[in-house]
Design brief:
Blueprint: H1 6-13, H2 15-19, H3 25-37, H4 39-58, H5 65-85
Amino acid sequence: MSCEGPDCEKALERLYLFIDHELDNASCDEIQAHIDGCQDCLSEFDLEVLVKTLVSRSCSEVAPQPLRDRVLLSIRSVQIEIQQER
């Protein structure tokens, strides 16, 4: 990415909030307008959306129940050990 202006910096600082729809409408409009006019920031936006999509897809599988049971049992064992040490 080669853009370095204050508008780019401001847009990129809030990019994740924008992608996650965690900004108010005015801020979203401001970032969208900037992205629409800045190829470098648009490229960064596209990349981050792609990464988020890929991570989301890879996290959609649920662990098998026997594995979940073993993990929960291990967590409980550690909790009991910690409580006994206090």
